Automatic annotation (TrEMBL):
Organism: Capillimicrobium parvum
Name by which UniProt lists this protein: DNA replication and repair protein RecF
NCBIfam families according to UniProt: recf (TIGR00611)
Residue span, RecF/RecN/SMC N-terminal domain: 11-347
An annotated Gene Ontology molecular function: single-stranded DNA binding
One Pfam family in the UniProt entry: SMC_N
GO CC terms of this entry: cytoplasm
Gene name, Swiss-Prot/TrEMBL: recF
Keywords from the UniProt entry: ATP-binding, Cytoplasm, DNA damage, DNA repair, DNA replication, DNA-binding, Nucleotide-binding, SOS response
Gene3D superfamilies attached to this UniProt entry: P-loop containing nucleotide triphosphate hydrolases, RecF/RecN/SMC, N-terminal domain
Family per record: Belongs to the RecF family.
Location(s) in or outside the cell: Cytoplasm
Classification lineage: Bacteria, Bacillati, Actinomycetota, Thermoleophilia, Solirubrobacterales
One GO biological process term: DNA synthesis involved in DNA repair
């Protein structure tokens, strides 16, 4: 099978200018594991963030992206080199607060990195960013949809089609409320929404089904006490688009009162639980962290199986949280597939870090960065 472009891109190099604590830096990555090591505050997470920024055009750490521009500088720039079976690829993101980002893939300007085929998929774990577990369902829905798109690229359009149909139906509800449209025009949109809605829900259910067992096993291995579960909670269980359209029709009075559609896959959720209790509501920070880590590794393994190569995995400071046994298990899982970058304050916390096939990068205080040969 010919691997799809945009999925097997291996990152070889990261260059940055005026990004966070770095005036300039140049880092080379290994094809397997790269360990960034250095003291607290040295700038390890900044490098992970820069790599994510270069691959996706967004920060994984903050929604206020001004923060990524180095104090006193006016603009930040990140360049990522990589390769796939088609040859080398180059991505760049230039960011000046107040202006549109300037992003290029293989020299050509792009509006959104996500649409660029020659871009590595990235999965990131930051211990203090637990929104995926404890935040609103919309975040988990979007995440599951990303997994769907990564597993089955041809299915990525279903979410867009559903969102477009939903926006149209909501606009129509508003017009009917305002007396500018007739209720008789709703069934046509209900049918459209139901067609994409059932497809979207089924894709999500299939994706979660692929993750379910892996998630439970991994959560146990990484030390989450009790029985972990990942469960898709769809809003509608209608077996066919016609049945879902009938559910919409039944609820139309409520929808007209609210002015928007209250029922459908835009209300689905992914529930992560421990001993049957939702970790979002009842999990401790430590439990939520382990669940997130287990979810990301489960996705990585499902993707490796389905697509031959998993996303680039970025793990910030996870080892210090785990006991030696669990570190070993995590390291073994990571080493099994693909490319990953791990940060640590202590190389001894990363099992196998001294092995010849691991790339080690020493991160110095502030802006200094030295690279040790693999
Ligand atoms: N825009 C910025 N300009 C300059 N320095 C910044 C900027 N944003 C953050 N920093 C500095 O970056 C440093 C933190 O770097 P980073 O978070 O990468 O550390 P770290 O090596 O991951 O540390 P830890 O091991 O504690 O997580 C802090 O000293 C912070 O002041």
């Amino acid at each position: 099978m010919v691997p799809e472009r945009g999925f097997v891109v291996i990152v070889t190099r990261l260059r940055l200018r005026d990004f966070r604590s770095y005036a300039a830096a140049d880092v080379a990555f290994g094809e397997g594991l790269t360990v960034l090591h250095g003291r607290n505050g040295a700038g390890k997470t900044n490098l992970l963030e820069a790599l994510y920024f270069g691959c996706t055009g967004r920060s994984c750490r903050t929604s206020n992206e001004r923060e990524v521009v180095r104090f006193g500088a006016t603009a930040a720039r990140v360049e990522v080199d990589g390769h796939d079976p088609d040859g080398p690829h180059a991505l760049s993101v230039g960011f000046q607060p107040g202006e549109a980002k300037r992003m290029r893939v293989d020299g050509a300007p792009v509006e959104r990195m996500a649409d660029a085929p020659a871009r590595p998929l990235v999965s990131v774990f930051l211990p203090d960013r637990l929104e995926l577990v404890k935040g609103a369902p919309a975040l988990r829905r979007a995440h599951v949809d990303q997994v769907v798109a990564a597993l089955w690229p041809a299915r990525a359009d279903t979410r867009r089609a559903y969102s477009a149909a939903l926006a149209q139906r909501n606009a129509l509800l508003q017009r009917i409320r305002a007396g500018r449209a007739n209720r008789a025009s709703l069934p046509a949109w209900d049918a459209e929404l139901a067609r994409h809605g059932v497809a979207l829900r089924d894709d999500r259910a299939r994706a979660v089904e692929l993750l379910r067992e892996r998630f439970a096993t991994l959560a146990g291995e990484l030390g989450l006490a009790g029985t972990a579960g990942a469960r898709f909670r769809p809003r509608t269980r209608a077996a066919t688009p016609e049945a879902f359209a009938a559910e919409l029709a039944e609820r139309v009075d409520g929808d007209l009162e609210r002015g928007f559609t209250g029922h459908g896959p835009h209300r689905d959720d992914l529930v992560l639980e421990r001993d049957g209790r939702d970790l979002r509501a009842y999990g401790s920070q430590g439990e939520q962290r382990l669940a997130l880590l287990a979810l990301l590794i489960a996705e990585r393994e499902a993707l490796a199986e389905a697509r031959g190569r998993p996303p680039l995995l970025l793990l910030d400071d996870v080892m210090s949280e785990l006991d030696p046994d669990r570190r070993e298990r995590l390291a073994e899982r990571i080493a099994r597939h693909g490319q990953s970058v791990v940060t640590t304050t202590d190389l001894a916390h990363v099992p196998g870090a001294s092995s010849g096939d691991v790339t080690r990068v020493a991160v110095g205080e502030g802006t200094v960065l030295q690279e040790a040969a693999a």
